[in-house]
Amino acid sequence: MSKEVATQVATYLLEIKAVKLNPIEPFTWTSGWRSPIYCDNRVTLSHHVIRTYIKQELVNAIRKNFGTVTAIAGVATAGIAQGALVAEAMQLPYAYVRPEPKKHGMKNQIEGQLPAGSNVVVIEDLISTGGSSLKAIEALREEGFNVLGLAAIFTYGFDLASQQFENANCKMITLCDYNALLKVAVELDYINVNILDDLSAWRSNPSQWRQ
Asked: Is 40 a domain residue?
């Protein structure tokens, strides 16, 4: 992860309020976890300069960290648009992966056509526990594709996610992470330095924080 890129992405996310930090009135995730942060990277798609920057830095990171890439796959739903932008920039075949096969029609889980045996990089907007991303990776592998790894815009940096990607033998790279975001948030006076300990405590044990 480039420090310069991480700082710029964090600045953009805070600037357009794609990320909200509020430990006083925490958000509740669908998992039931209480969280001081809410991240919606889909907001970046509404801003041409920002989505272009993120697209190009994902491309740069993919070229730097992976070998010969012959296809791109996005993770439904938030990774679909980001993946399509990257595939277009790299002039590569593209598909996206559903959480599970459709229950009607062709019952596809992988939507689109990738050449058999493609070397695929998976695109995600956000990594929390990594569960949905790893389901997509498993689906691609089951269809005979060689998954080189995953590239995402942002990660919370949970140990659980890192362990799960390691167990799946899948390299994960991101443009920005939680620590970089907090550093920029303090520098921009988005948050007070006095609440950093509380924000760090959440990242260390998110399932028990404020329960």
From this structure: yes
pLDDT tens per residue, range 73-114: 999 999 999 999 999 999 999 999 998 876 676 668 999 999
pTM to 2 decimal places: 0.94
The CATH code of the domain that includes 193 is 3.40.50.2020
Could you read off the pLDDT of 118-158 as tens digits, one per residue? Answer: 999 999 999 998 999 999 999 999 999 999 999 999 999 99
Domain of 183? 3-204
Eight-class DSSP state of 173 = E
- Contact criterion met (CB below 8 Å) for 87 and 62: no
Using the structure block, give the residue that is written with the tokens 């033998």. Answer: 169
Residue-wise burial string across 141-164, b where 16 or more C-beta atoms lie within 10 A, e elsewhere: eebebebbbbbbbbbbbbeebeeb
Q: What is the pLDDT of residues 13-27, one digit of tens each?
A: 999 999 998 888 899
Q: Round the CA-based radius of gyration of the chain to a whole number and report it.
A: 17
Q: How confident is the prediction for the chain on average, in pLDDT?
A: 93
- For residue 119, which amino acid is it? N
Cβ-in-10-Å burial (0-12, 13-18, 19+) of 86 comes to buried
- For residue 150, give the H/E element and its range: strand 146-155
Q: How many CB atoms lie within 10 A of CB 131?
A: 13
User: Residue 209: inside a domain, yes or no?
Assistant: no
Give the total number of structural domains in the chain.
1
